[in-house]
Write a structure and sequence with these properties.
five-stranded mixed beta sheet; 2 helices; about 35% strand; mainly beta; globular
């Protein structure tokens, strides 16, 4: 009985510890450079009318719970989805055809569904938390997006914050 109870407790706490993993960031092509973003704009697209494909709902590593990596680009103050790679954490993961997510369309896709802030870490990492995007960098560029359009930019200097 004690063995069964121990196994049940381990199984119940496993998902909690797995969610506490730093996540692999999406990429953003911005001002001619490809940078990491600590934001997930594609998640706002998925809903009852636009369900996430089943293949993307089966993460194969704890550093990629959303099941994909997306590449974005800002051109003429608009956010576009350029590419989606699905699966796991390897370097050779398969590309998800854009038409699978947006039937009848091809890349790039104007991200008119997205309103929020793209967080672009800059400089050296000042502190590391093994959870989500909780790492702190010297600076972070915050790009505010409303319905796919850039409406503001702000740079935060984390070196000036009290520790």
């Amino acid at each position: 009985m004690k063995k069964i109870l121990l196994i049940v407790i381990m199984l119940l706490t496993l998902p909690l510890s797995a969610w506490a993993t730093a996540q692999m960031p999406d990429k953003l092509i911005y001002e001619g450079k490809t940078v990491d973003i600590h934001s997930e704009p594609l998640e706002q697209y998925f809903n009852k009318n636009h369900p996430k494909p089943f293949s993307m709902m089966q993460p194969t590593c704890t550093a990629l719970w959303r099941g994909y990596l997306a590449t974005w680009e800002i051109k003429k103050d608009k956010l576009y989805l350029v590419k989606v790679v699905g699966g796991g954490c390897g370097d050779d993961e398969p590309e998800v055809p854009i038409s699978k997510l947006f039937p009848g369309k091809s890349s790039p896709i104007f991200a008119n569904w997205y309103s929020g802030t793209l967080v672009v870490p800059q400089g050296k990492m000042l502190s590391y938390e093994h959870m989500g995007y909780e790492q702190v960098y010297e600076k972070e560029l915050r790009i505010r997006i409303s319905k796919g359009k850039v409406v503001g930019k702000k740079t935060i200097d984390n070196r000036k914050k009290k520790k």
